[in-house]
Amino acid sequence: MSNRVVCREASHAGSWYSASGSQLNAQLEGWLSKAESTIRPARAIIAPHAGYTYCGACAAHAYKQVDPTVTRRVFILGPSHHVPLSRCALSPAEIYRTPLYDLRIDQKVYADLWKTGLFERMSLQTDEDEHSIEMHLPYTAKAMESHKDEFSIVPVLVGALSESKEQEYGKLLSKYLADPSNLFIISSDFCHWGQRFRYTYYDESHGEIYRSIEHLDKMGMGIIEQLDPMSFTNYLKKYRNTICGRHPIGVLLNAVAELRKSGLEMNFSFLNYAQSRLWHLVHHRKTQTSYGRHMRLSSPARTVPARLGWFLQEMPALLIPLLLMLTSHKPSSMGKYLLLGTFCMHYFQR
């Protein structure tokens, strides 16, 4: 029998956030110093899981509300991005590594959850591929550093749950939420907009696209603040907003609803909102970029006719292969000329 401790490595360190403990610590301290502690101690927070370059400052507003003097166990619920799950999954690891210090998984709670038969066991590879939980580990370590030997974590990977499953997991976890020494961290970004995400909802009445996205997200945030799981479900059905942590949020809302049945009231408030593409926002705060059917006749920008613009845009794709054909001095096969010629004919037709 092997007594080797299974450790999950900080697989996204060095890319999504700094792998240097001292540099990471300085960054976290900088972001936290600019956030205010307004509703401390928090019993649950919702924070993003993008790279720290994009969301580090925003996440600080949530983690500033964590009180390490009362928190002894931290549940981290993150959505599954890479593997299909219809339930929730637990990690095979005992230790989660971070550049700051190692975090210990609460094996007693894990054993109790496993006994329910509601959880799967994910592989270590799946665990290390997933970022939604890992992105909260350095912030958790930083927020709890004054009591780093006095707390444990309970990471839970949340699958694409049905409404009934969200209710079931919410009911199960509600007893842990009722304990003031437990903190719940819900990992979630909000709207993922664009063709890449197959989501291009745009309400022109709000102005530019990023304004429409902001309005849509804040509508959802307002509904989450009501702590009503059914209202949040109806919002998602109506707008299809691509909130990747919608199922962890649904589990939390159902846990709160379960506690309300016993007369325990909770309040929830969002403290900060930010969109990742800051360069895009800065640009559009300075100028109104018009294009296509959104072009205003009074636009002060210099423009070219659409067909000419398209022709100029496509010309390099036509001229470069043509140049290769005309300037090549090496013996070439007919196949090469046929391929390049066909390519040029295709782009000339375009």
TrEMBL record:
Gene3D superfamilies named among the record's database cross-references: LigB-like
One Pfam family here: Memo
Signal sequence bounds: none
Domain of life assignment: Eukaryota
Cross-referenced InterPro entries: MEMO1_fam
Family statement: Belongs to the MEMO1 family.
Designated name of the protein: Protein MEMO1
